[in-house]
Design brief:
Blueprint lengths: L4 H6 L7 E4 L3 E5 L7 E7 L14 H17 L7 E4 L15 E5 L9
Antiparallel strand pairs: 1-2, 2-3, 3-5, 4-5
The protein binds 2'-deoxyguanosine-5'-monophosphate.
């Protein structure tokens, strides 16, 4: 797996509030929620950042977004609406270097983001 905290969650080495998982990805609640609903969707494959995506990851990326939409329905925020964010590197606000989608909902989102 990888030696980031998310790699260890995906490997089952440390606990998380997991809402969905399969062979390719894991969805779990963020420890420091920025909205009433804040869920992270990660690939099991330890891709550090969006910059590291390769052509061979195209199907996996599709699965991450499909999972985000499915989990949004599962937790009841799909109809009201939600936001999906990927932070990349320092200026993008990334702190954990294992690719992840933030699924945020449960309150109106502001635009532009801070
Ligand atoms: P980012 O800044 O985009 O890299 O987002 C990292 C997110 O990960 C941040 O919202 C807080 C969350 N986080 C950090 N450590 C843990 C952890 O150990 N467990 C969980 N569930 N979330 C974590």
């Amino acid at each position: 797996m990888s030696d980031t905290i998310f790699g260890r969650i995906a490997a089952g080495e440390i606990p998380a509030d997991i809402l969905y998982q399969d062979d390719d990805l894991v969805a779990f609640r963020d420890l420091s929620p920025q909205a009433p609903t804040h869920i992270l969707i990660i690939p099991r494959k330890p891709i550090p950042t969006l910059n590291h995506l390769e052509e061979e990851d195209a199907e996996l990326v599709g699965k991450l977004f499909l999972a985000a939409a499915r989990v949004a329905k599962q937790v009841g925020i799909a109809e009201a609406g939600y936001r999906v964010v990927i932070n990349c590197n320092a200026a993008g606000g990334q702190t954990v270097f294992h690719l992840h989608l933030h699924l945020l909902g449960g309150r109106p989102m502001q635009w532009p983001p801070g």
